[in-house]
Amino acid sequence: MAELSQQSSLHWEVALAAAQAAMAHARQLNIKVHVAVVDRAGLELAYLRHNDAFLHSADIARDKAYTAAGFGFPTSAWLGILEANPAMRLGFPQRPRLVVFGGGLPVLVQGQCVGGIGVSGGSEAEDEACARAGLRAIGLESD
């Protein structure tokens, strides 16, 4: 009988290491953020926040990670996708938990999406830089 699935999974300790590195990078940028790391099903494996980070950034970070894991590409890519398709531009942003701005990155292992990391609390560029620092800390690079 053929094996149906040979998928890697993201371990919680690796997720925590990525979240800690993202938090440390935010500290270097002098911003206060929330960081969420999810598995490929969008379920939270690690979550950290700086004291006094914006309250609404908690859910935004989680949703950025969820969106990146669900589609396998950075949340910042959505702007280009939506600009090219008017129907998607009207419908997709209405979807619960879909984030269409930067700060969420997929966790890719040998081209396979095993999760996502989302950061919220700074600018889009700062959030994405923190997420990239999280990926670098676990030996991964993002595109």
From TrEMBL:
PANTHER family: PROTEIN GLCG, SLR1406 PROTEIN. Pfam families: HbpS-like. InterPro entries: GlcG_carb_metab_protein, PduO/GlcC-like, PduO/GlcC-like_sf. The keyword Transferase applies. It comes from the Bacteria. This is Cobalamin adenosyltransferase. Keywords: Transferase. GO terms for molecular function: transferase activity. The keyword Transmembrane helix does not apply. Gene3D superfamilies: Haem-degrading domain.
